[in-house]
Amino acid sequence: MIDSSIPEGGELATLSPVVSLSGVSVAYGSNVVLTDVTLDFFPGRITALLGANGAGKSTLIKALSGANPRYSGDIAVDGTVLHLSSPVLAKAHGISTVHQKVADGIVPGLSIAENVVLDDLANASRHPLRNTKQSFLDARAALATLGLDWPDSLLAQDAARLSISDAQLLVLARALRGTPRLLILDEPTSALTAAEADRLFDVLRALRDTGLSIVYVSHRFGEIEALADRVVVLRDGLVQHSSERPFAWHEILHDMLGRATELEQTRVDVRRGQGVVARVNGVPLLPAAAPLDLEVRTGEVLGILGLIGAGKSELAELLAGLARPASGSLELDGEPYAPKRPSDALRSGVVLVPEDRQRQALLPGWSVAHNISIPFLKISSALGTLRTSRETSRAREVIDSLGVVTSGPNASIDDLSGGNQQKVVVGRWLSASPRLALLDEPFRGVDISARREIGDRLKELVATGDAGAIVLSSDVDEILEVADRIIVLVAGVVELDAYADETDRASIVGAFLGARTRDQRSTHDEGHPK
Amino acid sequence: MTSAPLASKTTSLAERGAAFVVRWGFIGVTVALIAFFVITEPNFRTVDNVFGMLKFIAPTAIAGLGVMLAITVGGIDLSVGASAGFAVSIAAWTMVIGNQVGVVAIGVVLLGGLLIGGLNAFLIVVARIPDLLATLATSFVIVGLKLLIVDGKSISSQMSLSDGSTAPGKFTADYLWLDRGSLGPVPIPVIIFVVITALLWFILERTRWGRALYAVGANAEAARLAGIRVQLYRTVAYMGCGLLASIAGLLLGARIGQGDVSAGNSLLLDAVAVALVGVSVLGIGRPNAWGTALGAILIAVMVTGFTMVGLPYYAQDFGKGIVLLIALLFSFTFSRRRTVVTAGSTTSS
Fold it and tell me: Which of A10, A211, A504, A516 is the most exposed place for a label (fewest CB within 10 A)?
């Protein structure tokens, strides 16, 4: 048994890593999402992997678990360099992964026992006839590694009937079959209550003490503080930080949310809004969160900063008519505002640039002009008949105002780069002079210059004094660059609300830390895995 | 025909060739086939034959335009054959048993078509059954219902009923005019076919409602966020499909002159094939009205030509199958564009 509090150097150096990465990079096309990652995972230690959206966490996990064989650099297991070309191969070499969506790991219709021993179904060396008795024995043995003693009557039931936390344990038990050397857990507590999470932590500590190396991905600092031996932070595809206990949380957050860059300067042009365009009155963003009150003002860009599960997208969905408030109410221009569907919001002048460009915004194969005009077909037509000239002129305005790099309005949207596609989407929604523009992660996968142009366009919009804008992001730099007023949202609660010239990076990061202690008590708040 | 590497940006000669074939292949095949029959078969090039072919294919084409509407919103409708058959029998029943004039029968049939489309839409949009399965199930229900109504029999004028009496009504002239009438040299079915095609082309390409229908098929979630009532448009598309299938049935019934219970059985596969050929014509990669019409014309040319040169009737099915297969290869394999036919898709909201 290995003690978890091994000091750095000395003893540790005598231990050889179970898995080591050197110079691992992953690129999708010309888009590099993971750059030169060099990391060692030692036995008997829990490594927490942290990073904001798009930092490269899932990419790293995919490479490690064999789900993405198209990586460069070396991954060595027990000192031997291997090419992890498939999940089966990774597992055969002792790398086991539990993915975030537990439900995806359960095959409904099969019994609990069969679900535990599911990997055997794909194992060619197994006897082709299913032996129920043997699978029960194997399942019980696997569950025993977690200290679970489920009776046969339970094992025979349909796995779909398990509660989410029991399903989580089932998937974990399956991952632990064949005694893995490295266990990867991707946000394992995102669907668990605090008590269930505690139960899981006890199991993980026991597993660590048997010499298992664990990679633990989470957004919850409380959990990491309680569990991890080491923290690794990814940002923009790079390892930004790696440190042992005791954790310097300030530094970790800085590295995770963005280091101060040379680009940063004190904002001198911070606008203060005049009127109120929208109000949120006592609406809980997340099932267990306290009711939220929020005032959105005209003439300023409001930046809302929060990690996954903080309630950002929920807030945007409420205002854009995609979801209805569980309780409380919304106001727009002082009037009650209860949009039933996106078209209602649109008619009231509330527009949403959604988080996922490909899935929620783009019409593949369509021209730039047609992509831009889609919400405004009524405006660009007379008696229902489309007026091409109106569509084209609107597209030209968008192309000019945002500097979209394209051959023209008739170019296919598929031929544009990601940043330019995003400019088209943002331009589409801002082209109708909205009252309130909501932009959910508008800068994801967008280069600096596109980001600058989108930001400028937003400022131009609010400068008229009639419109409000909200940018929702998990990146401090993005928010500091674009926002006049900054709100930090943690677990559906406002932790900070200040104008950009009244606050600074340290206070913003501090707002996250202030929430850390509460985070530990209310781990079930983030009940919405994306 | 070579499938060029899709990722490379520089267009090689092979790629450009493939693109050319995708774009012009179908029109080329149709023109070549027509040229072949025009040269070899003197009867083929008569005006009568041209209208005859168009008249013959009109029901298929109209049902195909219905399927096209379903494909436009990202779905499929496999109940068009059953709906057309239902229309044939119901029209006959209304006139012969119900002793009504043709206009009433036409009204009843069109209403029935809308209802069938509404049922499909309900099952797909509200009950969230995958389109393929929902319309497969309704096609059985429709056929069964038809047989129950007509007592399993083909209905003809002056037929004797089960109580020994003679049916009161007959196929009226106004109904039969749908098949036998003409405007100058142009038969009525051809006029209906062309008018519907032009109308659908105009709606889909030139109006905002058409654009919205395409948007629902291209990316339902993006369409919804753009304020388009996705469920409403899908409902309209399926109801339109039901309506067009019943129009196809009306023309079929007027041609046969009786309520043949087996009418419409072979219509489904032809209609789906025609709509899918339409997707691939000109390399457009999305369902469209003139492409669907061209698909229908290609099949008409083939069937007529094959018959004239003396090939057995079962060679037609082989020819149609090959045409469909080539259309699918063009749409899915060789086309650079992503084809938007997504049968079996469901949208959540």
Answer: A10
